[in-house]
């Protein structure tokens, strides 16, 4: 059997190939006759959808080519859930670029790292060694909480927060390690700040060009694809991260639609039924895709 580290490494290589072939994948996904929904008409459609939702919702959308942005409750400070793992990933790559360690550096599992909320690393024996590369992939693609805690311990929680502040993301805070049985609401952000962070990664404005490419490759390898991507065409490259609590569903990502790539960030919290959050994020994502697909066709004319 192939070792887990080699399987994960192969997955990341495949994701890199996906980033390199984004235009081809996205072009194949672009419908010939999408619904006539312009970007100008998108905001009121999303507002109506949000207005029908129970609980608290927030949406932020950005056109990566044209600069058009939409925000609904975009500055509201809300539970980040596992979307906070994107800032952790950024800090890991920042410290790699500084030469503090490499992706091949091994990190030993301790009992303090364990969390059974998501992922299987919590069941591994104490002292098991994992490469930083493996932990990054598990943290993002599998949302493994134990892998995340190992990386937080490696880079320092305060450093994650300081880097976010330095980027102007003052509401994005990692208040604790990832503890599914603790006060996980100490992980905070806004959809606007997640949108800005993804814009910076997509534009290769953080750390360095190669680091951004690698972060995008890992995000494209996401295995939890039941929210933002659910009703979008197969083969469309989407670099995204989900987040889930008992009353919260989040999904934030970059959709590489040929001719009109965009960022989509949606939070739904204080829900009595997570199915409501699923319907909201899926419907908002579909409306957004339709608008940008129409925009992509109009830009070609």
The geometry reads as globular
* Biggest β-sheet strands, sense, barrel: 5 strands, antiparallel
Q: What fold name goes in the CATH topology slot? A: Beta-lactamase
- The helix fraction, in percent, is 40-55%
Strands of the widest sheet, in order across it, are: 2-1-10-9-8
How many alpha or pi helices? 10
State the separation between the terminal residues, measured CA to CA: 52 Å
Number of domains: 1
Total DSSP E strands = 10
Proportion of residues in extended strands? 15-25%
Radius of gyration: 18 Å
Q: Which structural class do the helices and strands define?
A: alpha+beta
Q: Give the overall average pLDDT.
A: 89
CATH architecture: 3-Layer(aba) Sandwich
List the uncertain runs: 1-30
What's the CATH superfamily, by name?
A: DD-peptidase/beta-lactamase superfamily
Order of helices and strands: HHHEEEHEEHHHEEHHEEEH
CATH class: Alpha Beta
Short structural summary:
The chain has ten helices and ten strands. It is of the alpha+beta class.
Provide a descriptive summary of the structure in words.
There is one protein chain. α4 (85-97) crosses α6. β1 and β2 (69-72) form a beta hairpin. This protein has ten helices and ten strands. Helix content is 44%, strand content 16%. Mean pLDDT is 89; it is low at 1-30. The chain starts with a helix and ends with a helix. A five-stranded antiparallel β-sheet has the order 2-1-10-9-8, with helices on both faces.
Helix/strand layout:
Elements: H1 4-20, H2 22-29, H3 39-51, E1 56-63, E2 69-72, E3 78-79, H4 85-97, E4 106-108, E5 129-131, H5 132-141, H6 145-155, H7 157-166, E6 173-174, E7 187-189, H8 191-202, H9 209-220, E8 238-245, E9 248-255, E10 262-269, H10 274-300
Antiparallel strand pairs: 1-2, 1-10, 3-7, 4-5, 6-7, 8-9, 9-10
Helix pairs in contact: 1-5, 1-9, 3-10, 4-6, 4-7, 5-6
